[in-house]
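in:
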């Protein structure tokens, strides 16, 4: 498999650890070539409760996958479901007085908003930042209006955060398994993006999941994950 680039993923949900490997060839064609599911251990009430147990399970399964594929992984992408993410939506403004919107204006709004969120949420890490809405002189714009002229520009950003302790624990666990975390992604975002891609005219919707013992609802607006809430009841 030397001609393929392989990427290792780990999904952590309420029931299972799900390992899967995707290949990427010279033509950038992606496909899942291996999948392994095992019982969830070391996670209680959506929090990491036993680092050693999780480390053992992950290390054992990564070894099994590497042996099966004859491939050594150095990085992994983590997909988290139901780890109590928090969402913050902020709007930044720029007075233009008839001048042109520059990329530097957008970068300033992004960095200022990001700093504000980091100062407010000292015990959380930002996982995702979404460009939610753009307004130029109170008129909604579909895309970044770089190069347009106006008097007042408003840019709404949506932030998805998770406890810093969860990030630190995951870093420690995967380091013990001899792989580095390349990226951490919230599963609701991936699911929302998949729905939006499959239904091109639908970029704003609620999605409801109902299981035996728990339920979830998340809100996707303008191709951005805006909020998510979990409930401890189901069917």
């Amino acid at each position: 498999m030397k001609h393929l680039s392989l990427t290792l993923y780990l999904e952590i949900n309420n029931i299972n650890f799900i390992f899967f490997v995707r290949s990427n060839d010279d033509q950038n064609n992606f496909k899942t070539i291996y999948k392994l599911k095992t019982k969830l251990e070391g996670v209680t009430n959506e929090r990491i409760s036993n680092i050693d147990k999780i480390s053992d399970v992950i290390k054992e399964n990564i070894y099994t996958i590497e042996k099966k594929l004859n491939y050594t992984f150095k990085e992994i992408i983590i997909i988290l479901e139901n780890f109590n993410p928090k969402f913050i939506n902020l709007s930044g403004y720029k007075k233009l007085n008839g001048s042109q919107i520059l990329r530097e204006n957008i970068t300033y709004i992004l960095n200022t908003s990001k700093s504000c969120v980091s100062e407010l949420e000292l015990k959380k890490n930002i996982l995702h930042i979404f460009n939610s809405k753009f307004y130029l002189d109170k008129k909604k714009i579909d895309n970044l209006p770089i190069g347009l002229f106006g008097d007042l520009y408003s840019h709404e950003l949506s932030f998805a955060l998770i406890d810093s302790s969860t990030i630190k624990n995951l870093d420690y666990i995967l380091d013990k398994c001899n792989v580095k975390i390349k990226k951490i992604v919230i599963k609701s975002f991936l699911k929302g993006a998949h729905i939006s891609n499959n239904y091109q005219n639908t970029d704003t919707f609620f999605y409801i999941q109902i299981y035996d013992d728990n339920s979830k609802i998340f809100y996707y607006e303008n191709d951005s994950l805006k909020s998510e809430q979990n409930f401890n009841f189901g069917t």
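note: The chain is about 25% helix and 45% strand.
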